[in-house]
Amino acid sequence: MHIEPGLVDGAKIFLSYVTAAGAGAYALQRGWITLREQGVASFAGRAIASTALVFSFFEILPHFPVGVSEVHLILGSTLFLIFGVAPAAFGLALGLLLQGLLFAPFDLPQYGMNLTTLLVPLFALEALARRIIPSGMAYVDLSYGQVLSLSLAYQGGIVAWVAFWALYGQGLTSANLAAISTFGGAYLLVVLIEPLVDLLVLGSAKAIRGLKGSKWVTPRLHSAA
After folding, report:
1. Which three-class secondary structure string do you get for 117-146?
2. Predicted TM-score (pTM) of this structure
3. 18 contacts 38 by C-beta, under 8 angstroms
4. What is the rounded CA–CA span in Å between residue 53 and residue 91?
5. Chain segment 158-209, per-residue pLDDT in tens
6. d(C-alpha 130, C-alpha 89), whole Å
7. How far apart are CA 211 and CA 60, in angstroms?
């Protein structure tokens, strides 16, 4: 997943450093809370697993350029439901960084924009989850409607941020608006697929009894808040 090089350049790119710093600071805060509540080993294990999965999503799963960016099956809601918000955030940040360092160095100048685009929707998803998931419900018992809402929140947030960067960098030209619309329309495919993946993963987690209480998954996966 990347914002196309040159979409935002010059002095304008400074804004991406500010937004990424804010998103990173919040991720660190949530990480510290998770460390205190669940321990270093649990947090580190989930963050490493999340990083490996994110890197795999970027490099192995199908992805194709559309309009102003690329369409990826990032599975942000899946990472959140399995690992929790902080490990998922660290996984997204580190997986994206590894991709840039190892395979796409031309993406590194856009790292701040890409990081913001991935993390802020994740934090919005977390806020939505608090509202629509009862405190007495474990994630493995979520309905299709609930996981669809989470997926829409995450993927919609990605589209909104990509649109913002495109408008910020290139303005309200007809070509730019057309490219943004094409990108947003293509992302509907992800919204259709991701909730089904979530339900499949949650169903598998529910069936595997050994995962309950495991340090490799968020406690909320099998237990009430």
Report:
1. HHHHHHHHHHHHHHHHCCCCCCHHHCCHHH
2. 0.94
3. no
4. 8
5. 999 999 999 999 999 999 999 999 988 888 888 888 899 999 999 998 888 6
6. 17
7. 26
